[in-house]
Each structure stands twice: as C-alpha cells, then as structure tokens.
Design goal:
Blueprint: H1 4-8, E1 30-33, H2 37-48, E2 53-57, H3 60-63, E3 72-75, H4 76-82, E4 85-88, H5 102-105, E5 109-112, H6 126-133, E6 138-141, H7 148-153, E7 161-166, H8 169-181, E8 185-188, H9 195-200, H10 210-238, H11 250-281, H12 290-297, H13 299-319, H14 324-339, H15 348-374, H16 377-380, H17 385-411, H18 428-432, H19 434-446, H20 449-459
Parallel strand pairs: 1-2, 1-4, 2-3, 4-5, 5-6, 7-8
Antiparallel strand pairs: 6-7
Helix pairs in contact: 10-11, 10-13, 11-13, 11-17, 11-19, 13-15, 15-17
Length: 487
C-alpha cells in the first residue's frame, strides 16, 4: 500500500513557463530603471533572450507583480549597482531624480530609450543631456524607435531596425549584442551627436513621401480642373448640356491615367538629366544640384504613386458600365439605332482602337505591378544587383513605353480634330504625352553608341580634363614612356 506522503505528492511537477528562458551564465546583467509599459516589455524580451534582468523601481513591492518571475524588481540604487548595462526607461523630465545613482552607474554603459514630444531642431538631445549629468558613464542612444508592442510580440510584427549611436565603441558593441540577441538588427548611426536625429525619427510623418505626395496631389488637381473645363464647363456654356454628373467618376477616371503617366515619366527623367549633366561636365566627381539629388532619391515613391493612380484608373474603368448614366446612354443609343433603321453599327477602326488600347493598357499595368513588387525590401533583397537593375531600368522603360502608347492609342486621330480644342486647349492625351515622349527621346539619345561609350567611360572614372593617355602594346617601340602630362 502506498504511503500517505507519496499520495499527497503531485503526479507532474510544475514546469517553467514556455516564454521564460534560463539566463545564460555568461550574459551581462541588464538593469532597467523604470516600470512603465516599455520597461515591462523590454524586461520580458530580455528574459526570453537569456539575459538576467534586474529592474529598479521607487516602489519595488508594488511593481514586482507586473514583471515576469525571472525578473528581479528592487530599488533603483541596487539595480544600478548589480547591472553591467543599464537602460534608462523613464521620462526625461525625471532625469534629475537619478542624481543619487552617479556613483553606482560610474563606468557603465547607459542606454537612453526616451523620445521627444516635439521635433528638436537645434537644442541638445535628451541623450546628450543625460551624458552631461553622468560624465563617468558611456551613454548610448537606442531602442527608442521600437515600440513596447514590438518588443512584446517580437520583431516579426514590426521593424527590425534599431538605430544606435554613442561615443564609446565598447558600449555600443554591448548594445549591439543585446539588440541581435533579442531578434533585432542594429544600425550604427555614429557618435552621440546623432542622437537628436534618432529622437526626431519617431516624430516624422513619412519624410520621404512629402514631395512625391505633394507632386501627386498637385498633378491631380491640375488635370482634374483641366478636364472639368474641357468636358463639363465648355458643353454647359456653349451647348447648354448639363453633364455635371461626370464629376465623381468619369472626370476622376480620366484624371488618374494622366497623373500616373506623368509620375512614371518623372521617375526616369532625373536619371536622364543626371546623365546629360555628367556628359556636359566630363566627370562624375562633381555633386549634382540639391534639387536633382532630392529628385533622384524620390524616384521610388514617385513610382509607387504612379502605380496607385494606374490601379485606381483600372478599378474606375471596370466600374463605368455599372453606372445608371451608362445604362441610360446605352438604351438611348439602341433606341436611336432602331428608330433610324440601322441594323449594324460596327466601326472597324473604333474596334481596333479599343482592342489595342485595352491590350497595351493591361500590359503597362502588369509591368507597373512588377516594378512595385520589386521595390519592396523583402523582394529586392532576394535579387542581385543585375536582376534588380534590369527590372527597374529595362522593364521600367518598357512600362513607360507601353503607358505612352496606351495614351496615344486612346487619342488616335482625335488630335487633328479642331472640335477637340475646347477653350483653345489641347486634348489631355496630347498634353500628357509631352513629358514621357521627351524622356523617351532623351533616353534614345543616350543609347547612341558614341554617347553611350563616352558616358560609360565617365562613370568608370574617366575625366575629360584629367586623363592618362596610355601607349598601346603595338606602339611600344615608338615611345618608351606613357604620356601623363594631363594628370
């Protein structure tokens, strides 16, 4: 018979929580000052990554239940004394309360994870203020671009990049190690003077999208008003036709392809301008103008805006037959045909025009979709440079050609019709085709053998005013020295 003591024992021993990990004996002790949301998420992530964690709090007994069991919650002074590396996870206005920890933090790496509440244009960063308060410490700025949610759920649900800066290489290496161990990717931003830019990063709203978005909006407003004047206001003033119902759908649908084509041309226009600028200068060792440099760095965003407008144009076009106005027009046309006794309304030229127009448009949208997909980092990282360049350059120009043909086929021979010049304004397809046709013609000029050869030499380092003329092997008998007088 089993003894009573054995019966009282549990059949299964309690196991450790699956999220908790045993600390690596060789891992540094990480201290965290503060018990807020970020501190709790950081402590959980560090523990699951194998780091021993000690949290410093002004009220350890009250806050100990907020942290995992493997985390030691103690006083701020004791946490700072035990830790090898300390995260300061309190608001900057409370930095003054840490003055008593100066001796305990001396000689240690201190990581400032704070963020500003407003953009800091010229003042010292919060990390630099912390470094001034603790000159004996090695202050590192980092982990401020990572949210508490990302720390808790893991880097798969957020950005993996962690911007880090500091004056001490040893301290930064320690933070790099912690960053990699927790599943993130550290990005070295340099010395602590870069902390202000890192603190401003979470406050910036799409900084690289401002100019492309503004260009898209301005182009849309321009072409929308242009189409409104020609297609709605002109018939109302001169023919008494009230067609304002076209404003929500039809006018928008005519505007989107105009914007898409111009934006796509603006993607490749700066590269062409840069090539001609290098040809005129005879060297690549001179900086581009600031406006051209900004334009070159905005090409990806311009291309994605173009893809968005082209996609919306396709969706709007598919919805055109669903409108009541389209159904009424179809019934009226059928009634007029029956009344006139016309059995066949087939127009061969119009049929071919529409077939070609749709086919080329679908091809252009397909190529734009491929360009948009390869601009994603996950896709671009799987391609080598030649593959990425082929898609973005060769197929990009193919998309521009298809989109331009799509517009020109839409116009067909209507550019020769005087009635199309309402208010003496050219049809939209003629106006839109100017920029892409100019870019394509300039690109053809760069493809000429004599021009391409010179441009290729310049991009390989040749300079027009400073070059070396080498003696060919067959001419070695005529000259024993290379002419280097131009160097």
């Amino acid at each position: 018979m089993m003894p009573k003591e054995e019966i009282r024992k549990p059949l299964l021993r309690a196991t450790q929580h699956p999220d908790a990990s045993m600390s690596d004996p060789g891992s540094p002790v990480v201290g965290i000052l503060g018990t807020g949301d970020f501190s709790r998420s950081l402590a959980r992530r560090l523990v699951t990554s194998g780091f021993p964690v000690v949290v410093g709090s002004r009220n350890p007994k009250r806050c100990s239940s907020l942290f995992p069991e493997d985390v030691e919650v103690t006083s701020q002074h004791q946490a700072a004394s035990q830790a090898d590396l300390v995260f300061v996870a309190i608001h900057p206005e409370h930095y003054s309360t840490l003055g008593s920890l100066r001796e305990a933090l001396a000689g240690k790496a201190v990581v400032d994870v704070s963020n500003s509440t407003c953009l800091n244009r010229d003042g010292p960063s919060q990390a630099e203020q912390l470094a001034a308060m603790f000159p004996e410490c090695s202050v590192v700025k980092g982990f401020n671009v990572i949210s508490a949610w990302t720390l808790q759920t893991g880097p798969r649900d957020g950005s993996r990049q962690v911007l880090i800066c500091g004056d001490s290489s040893q301290a930064k290496n320690s933070v790099f190690h912690i960053c990699r161990s927790t599943g993130f990717h550290p990005v070295d931003m340099g010395t602590l003077s870069a902390a202000r830019d890192i603190e401003n990063t979470p406050l910036l709203l799409f900084p690289s999208w401002c100019l492309p978005a503004l260009a898209t909006l301005l182009l849309f407003l321009f072409f929308y008003l242009y189409n409104f004047l020609r297609d709605i206001l002109h018939p109302y003033l001169f023919a008494g036709k009230y067609v304002f119902y076209k404003l929500p759908v039809e006018t928008v649908n005519v505007t989107f392809p105009c914007v898409a084509l111009v934006l796509l041309a603006l993607v490749y226009a700066p590269g062409v301008l840069a090539a001609f600028l290098q040809l005129s200068r005879g060297t690549k060792y001179r900086l581009f103008p600031a406006w051209l440099d900004v334009w070159l760095r905005s090409r990806k965003q311009l291309g994605l805006c173009s893809f968005l407008c082209a996609t919306l144009h396709a969706v709007y076009s598919l919805c055109l037959p669903m409108r009541k106005s389209a159904r009424y027009k179809l019934l009226n046309a059928a009634f007029k045909q029956v009344k006139a006794g016309q059995e066949d309304s087939w127009v061969e030229q119009e049929v071919w025009r529409m077939e070609l127009y749709l086919s080329v448009g679908i091809l252009a949208l397909g190529l734009l979709s491929l360009l948009a997909a390869t601009s994603l980092p996950t896709v671009a990282n799987s391609l080598n440079w030649r593959e990425f360049s082929f898609i973005q350059s060769r197929l990009g120009y193919a998309a521009l050609v298809m989109a331009t043909l799509h517009t020109l086929i839409y116009g067909w021979d209507r550019g020769l019709d005087p009635e199309q010049y309402r208010f003496y304004l050219p049809p939209p397809f003629l106006l839109v085709a100017v920029v892409p046709c100019g870019v394509l013609l300039a690109r053809l000029g760069l493809a000429l053998p004599c021009v391409a050869r010179r441009l290729g030499r310049i991009r390989r380092g040749w300079e027009e005013k400073r070059h070396i003329r080498f003696t060919l092997p067959e001419d070695a008998g005529r000259s024993s020295m290379d002419d280097v007088s131009g160097v």
